[in-house]
Amino acid sequence: MRHLIGMDDLSIADIDSLIATAEDIIANPKKYSEVCRGKKLATLFYEPSTRTRLSFEAAMMELGGGVLGFSEAQSSSAAKGESVADTAKVISCFADIMVMRHFKEGAPMVASLNASVPVINAGDGGHNHPTQTLTDLLTIKREKGRLTDMTIGLCGDLKFGRTVHSLITAMARYAGIRFVLISPEELKIPDYIKHEVLDRNAIPYEETTDLEAVLSSLDVLYMTRVQKERFFNEQDYIRLKDSYILTPLKLAKAKADCSVLHPLPRVNEISVGVDADARACYFKQVLCGKYIRMALIKMLLEAKEKEEA
Prior knowledge:
309 residues; alpha/beta; 4-stranded parallel beta sheet; 39% helix
């Protein structure tokens, strides 16, 4: 593996290796504090980000490396009309590895075809967000002790939610997984995910608009916000944005060991009253994101060194 553009770039063995490395980093941080000394990570963020960008920067720093880059398109040569392909070639002259978030689906793939260093997709439009999925998998593994034999509820914006699309693609490869897809009719999971991932692999799933009716059956509840930036019509966003709000009263219907995840940022979809519940895992999830990105940076740089040897 030279780049990470989508979860299909990773085998189950790759995922398991990344999770094992991340858990070793958590247990033995000093062991990894110098593994990227002399290396530089470029962060190319054409869309706003807090967790993803800062967790990549923190990850590289904690591996002993350096960071450079930009946090908005207007502060880069994209504002002058530079193409993603040319930007990738330029950044390859300065950095050993790059991470890109872009509003256009497929932009990180274009970058990977033109870069001479590893490229990591940090989210491309409503398409993929593989490092968030790795974060989710590490969180689930640490909370449940496994990645098999569970029912996962995905709630909210399933149409535009790139984190949902990537998580379904990844978890569908593990045994005994069942999905409950909870959304308004207008924000249902895209047909290509249902047909190419779920139906093709005979993964059991159900679609519903009623969160409370299915809460008691879930081992994991993955909440998502309705994304204003993906809507063309503000009235549609206003009508749908508060479709699901998880409160302590509703969560009382869930299993005692149900794990509640959210890729964040949250708006209204999880009440702050849920934060004190032991089942709330979304801030643990943020920390897991740093560790899995440390493991990924290490893996990709080691693969590049082997390729060049």
